[in-house]
Amino acid sequence: MSYSRTYSEYLGARRCCNSSSAGAQGPQGVPGAGGPIGFQGLTGATGPSGGAQGSTGPQGLQGVTGTTGSQGLQGVTGATGATGATGAQGATGTTGSVGMTGATGSQGLQGVTGATGAQGATGAQGATGTTGSVGMTGATGATGATGSTGATGATGATGATGATGSTGATGATGAKGATGGSPWIPMNGLGITGGGYTGIGVTGQDVLIYGNLLVTGGIDPIYLALSPQAVGPTGFVNPLWVDNSGFLRSEKILLQSGNTGINCSLTPYGMTGSGPLTITATEALTLSSPIQAINLNGDSISLNTTGNNIGINSGTSINIIATDGVYLTASNDPMTLTSASLMTITGNDGLTMTANNNPMTLSCVGAAIVMTASDDIGLTTALDAINLSAGLNINLNALNVNSYNYAMPICFDLVETSTINYTLVGQQMELVYQGTFSLPYQFFSDTPLVSYTSTRWKIDFQINCYNSSGGQGDKGFASYIDFEDQSTNIYTPFLFNATTPFARFFNTSSYNQASPSLFSWGWSDFVDFAGLVGTGSGNLPLKVNLYVAADNVLTGDFKWKVSLTRTNGL
């Protein structure tokens, strides 16, 4: 048994009675639009894998061991003979044949049939049936006798119009009648604000005004009900009206405490407060602008909700700017800031965002998230995660990013290629190269805001010489680096310096028959740049000085990398 899903389908199937007599059926209506396509069937099961992999070919034979060199003279050990050549590698085993392709999975179930399209328009009405024949007329009854009418006399001729008589004298004015009653009577009254009023009024009736009302004084009603309008009135300064969506409209709204107190101004360009601006809701707090930007400007801006979410949504950009502080607090539910374009949060003093019991999410789908503060940026959540999500970049413009009282690593690298030319010999220290390390001065000249952010930086130093001559095998080889600012102040590393340089005896390396041999060295150390604090940008960039001492002349090409990583103190 089948059932119709809709009443229209039921009628179209002609499963109902039609007791009316109608003319011939009209032509068929235009077919209705087809129903939506049904859901796609499930994907068939994947066929079995191909055949097993072929076995590995046998290993090649080991090469013949080279002959041992002849023994040298007594007392001197002869050189070890060269190692025999490695035997040829065995041939690779034949690759196994590819397994047969698995059978195609059975076709998924057919999707659900879409809903029947709308019923076509009703056909034109059939032609009217033929009118039945007229019945026979009944016999007419006998007419009674009519009395005789008397003859009408002839109308006489109209006489000529007489002459108009003279106007009579005006009568005396009658006595004045009594004055009628009026609903307007003198009265006194108190307004909602407690002020007294004296004038005329009406009691027990409504006053209807079908037109404009000019009021040159104040209005002191119990309430003011405004009828929704499609558009606002024209020709007035800052009119107050309600649109068809029920929103109260005005070009400018000022919320003020007293005549000179702190105020909040709502304009087409944003929300501005001359003092603290606080918006509090016990349920959800939502600021939404699907087309234009949302701007919150003031001295101190606070958005608080104790019972639900804080939601700020904008179709373009969200700008929150405060000269004192920006505070966004959600005690019990998530805090979500979402923007389809650039999101900018700026605090000239500090920026604090706190979520006590739920995640804090900053999401920007199509552009970057930029957080800028000249002081601190604080993102705090007591029990859950902090999520920063951007379709492009996440930019934190701050001197330090700290976690659990530790500064996050900030690393800078100097990578260069140059030459060494050491000529002093006799184990005398010589400045053989001076590199230039360009660094953001704020990380060095600004005072760390917390004690666990140190002025000490870890050094990772590596240098590799090639196409070089001399140096290899020198037992008097030593080296160190130091840093020099633009005022010629020297910053000396802790482990390796002019007093205790890096000293090592290098054996010759013939790796890959390199000629001349490769020659490399390096170390880890740290240096304190406390002397740069408070000096601004004038003492940077830093110079990196490389000193070398050796027994013999050392020349050649080199590549080096010097890395500086901020530490949490030692």
Task: Provide keyphrases for this structure.
570 residues, mainly beta, Jelly Rolls, 5-stranded parallel beta sheet, 30 strands
Poorly predicted regions are 15-22
CATH topology of the domain at 411-566: Jelly Rolls
Overall pLDDT score? 73
Query: What's the CATH architecture of the domain at 411-566?
Result: Sandwich
Largest sheet, strands/sense/barrel: 10 strands, mixed
Number of helices, counting only DSSP H or I runs of 4 residues or more: 2
Number of strands: 30
**Beta-sheet strand percentage?**
25-35%
CATH class of the domain at 411-566: Mainly Beta
The coarse overall form would be: elongated
Class from helix and strand fractions: mainly beta
Instruction: State the end-to-end CA separation.
Output: 85 Å
Q: Report helical residue fraction.
A: under 10%
Radius of gyration: 51 Å
Pfam family, one: Collagen
Region (Disordered): 20-89, 159-180
GO molecular function, one term: extracellular matrix structural constituent conferring tensile strength
Biased composition (Polar residues): 55-74
Explained architecture:
This protein has 570 residues and is an all-beta fold. It is built from two helices and 30 strands. Among the domains are: 270-398, no CATH class; 411-566, Jelly Rolls (Sandwich), CATH 2.60.120. The protein has helices at 7-12, 442-445; strands at 185-190, 196-201, 241-242, 248-249, 253-256, 263-267, 270-281, 285-289, 294-305, 310-314, 318-330, 335-339, 343-347, 350-355, 360-364, 369-373, 376-381, 386-390, 394-397, 402-403, 406-407, 411-422, 430-437, 456-469, 478-484, 490-491, 502-503, 519-528, 542-549, 554-566. The strands form seven sheets. Strands 5, 6, 7, 9, 11, 13, 14, 16, 17 and 19 form a ten-stranded mixed sheet that branches. The longest helix has 6 residues, at 7-12. The protein is elongated. Mean pLDDT is 73; it is low at 15-22.
